[in-house]
């Protein structure tokens, strides 16, 4: 399906969307969804085997959506999910990859806050059918000058048997915006769920704790996050993986930088089955006085035959590293920027080249901004 055209999107919005990975170009994407405030501005599917719809249209079109809508996330989870559930003009996207399809080009979904003071409410559902592979870039941002507002987003992600979902979320907000996503992924036997998260700009508050339930034998869950907390920002993020079947595995890797902001980096791996593996890694760097990082790793198991591990460290840039690079001809600022970029580059494994390019570009922008 196709609704709206790129030409109808004002130039300022198009440029801002690009900063969070949105190309709005059918030659580079398998599908596009752009929501401005509560209104669908642009929706297109460029392949027959990849479906992109506004969530309300999907609910009307498919009776079986009742098996997915509010099934991974409970509407009673907290006050913010209850607000989304009660919203009369709810919007959001539905994305589905058909059985067995391998989609190289990503689907892009951008949620854009245009009106100052608005509370944007979104409900998304993603389904990757059996043996399919899908890549999604989800960019969330605000219009220039829109410094106040709130984004409430519920996302339910379903990865079927033998399927793989690469989900990359890039946030670029403004200084007085609160962001509270609520996301849960259900992964079946042999499925792989990869979640990548990047926060690039100042924000009043981000509070999120995406969770993956690995419910089939051999399923894998991977969470990677790159976060920069600038002055005045509070970033409370984490990831949780529940290993519910044998031979499942989890990896959580986070890099956090505080440049005057506060970061709470959480991670939790729960072994609800024997013969599972998991590793959690949280590294933080404090660049200026007044900033704070709290690393909270958790491992849980009632079984003896599991392999769970974690490592966490918080520090600052070592003067000897800066000095070494300066002896190589870099200025102090250039040396510092190079070290920061290296720290943020977590070398995500198994990411398709196109998504890796998007991620590298976002990390480079963060490094330049520092």
How would you describe this structure to a colleague?
The chain folds into 2 domains: 2-317, no CATH class; 318-370, no CATH class. The strands form 2 sheets. Strands 1-3-2-6-8-10-12-15-17-19-21 form an 11-stranded mixed β-sheet, covered by helices on one side. The chain starts with a strand and ends with a helix. By secondary structure, the protein is α/β, with parallel strands linked by helices. It is globular, with a radius of gyration of 20 Å. The longest helix has 17 residues, at 353-369. The chain has helices at 11-18, 55-61, 79-86, 319-327, 332-344, 353-369; strands spanning 2-3, 31-36, 39-45, 50-54, 93-97, 107-113, 119-128, 133-142, 148-159, 164-172, 176-187, 192-199, 205-208, 211-214, 220-230, 234-243, 249-259, 262-271, 277-286, 292-301, 307-315. The mean pLDDT is 90.
Total helices: the number is: 6
Mean pLDDT, to the nearest integer, reads 90
Large-scale geometry: globular
What structural category arises from helix and sheet content? alpha/beta
- Kindly give the count of domains: 2
Approximately how much beta-strand content do the residues carry? over 45%
Biggest sheet: strand arrangement:
1-3-2-6-8-10-12-15-17-19-21
Largest sheet at a glance?
A: 11 strands, mixed
What string gives the helices and strands in order? EHEEEHHEEEEEEEEEEEEEEEEEHHH
> Helix coverage percent of residues?
10-25%
User: What kind of oligomer do you see?
Assistant: single chain
- Total strands: 21
User: Rg from C-alpha positions?
Assistant: 20 Å
**Poorly predicted regions:** none
Distance between the termini: 41 Å
């Amino acid at each position: 399906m196709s609704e709206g055209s790129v030409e109808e999107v004002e130039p300022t919005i198009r440029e801002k969307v690009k900063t969070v990975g949105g190309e709005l170009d059918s030659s580079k994407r398998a599908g596009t969804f752009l929501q401005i405030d509560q209104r669908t501005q642009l929706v297109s599917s460029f392949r027959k085997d990849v479906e992109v719809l506004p969530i309300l249209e999907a609910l009307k079109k498919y009776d079986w959506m009742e098996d997915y809508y509010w099934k991974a996330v409970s509407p009673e989870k907290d006050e913010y999910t209850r607000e989304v559930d009660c919203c009369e003009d709810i919007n959001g996207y539905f994305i589905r990859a058909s059985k067995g399809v391998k989609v190289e080009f990503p689907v892009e979904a951008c949620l854009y806050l245009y009106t100052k003071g608005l509370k944007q409410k979104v409900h998304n559902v993603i389904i990757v059918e059996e043996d399919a592979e899908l890549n999604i870039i989800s960019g969330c941002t605000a219009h220039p000058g829109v410094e106040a507002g709130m984004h409430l987003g519920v996302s339910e992600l379903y990865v079927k048997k033998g399927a793989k979902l690469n989900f990359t979320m890039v946030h670029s907000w403004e200084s007085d915006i609160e962001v509270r996503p609520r996301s849960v992924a259900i992964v079946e036997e042999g499925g792989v769920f990869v979640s990548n998260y990047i926060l690039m700009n100042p924000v009043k508050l981000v509070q999120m704790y995406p969770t993956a339930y690995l419910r089939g034998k051999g399923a894998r869950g991977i969470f990677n996050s790159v976060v920069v907390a600038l002055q005045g920002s509070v970033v409370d993020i984490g990831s949780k993986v529940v290993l519910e079947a044998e031979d499942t595995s989890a990896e959580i890797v986070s890099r956090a930088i505080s440049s005057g902001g506060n970061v709470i980096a959480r991670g939790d791996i729960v072994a609800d089955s024997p013969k599972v593996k998991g590793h959690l890694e949280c590294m933080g760097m404090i660049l200026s006085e007044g900033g704070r990082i709290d690393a909270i790793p958790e491992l849980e198991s009632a079984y003896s035959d599991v392999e769970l591990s974690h490592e966490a460290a918080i520090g600052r840039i070592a003067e000897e590293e800066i000095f070494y690079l300066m002896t190589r001809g870099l200025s102090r600022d250039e040396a510092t920027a190079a070290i920061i970029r290296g720290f943020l580059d977590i070398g995500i494994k198994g990411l398709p080249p196109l998504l890796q390019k998007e991620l590298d570009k976002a990390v480079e922008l963060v490094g330049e901004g520092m």
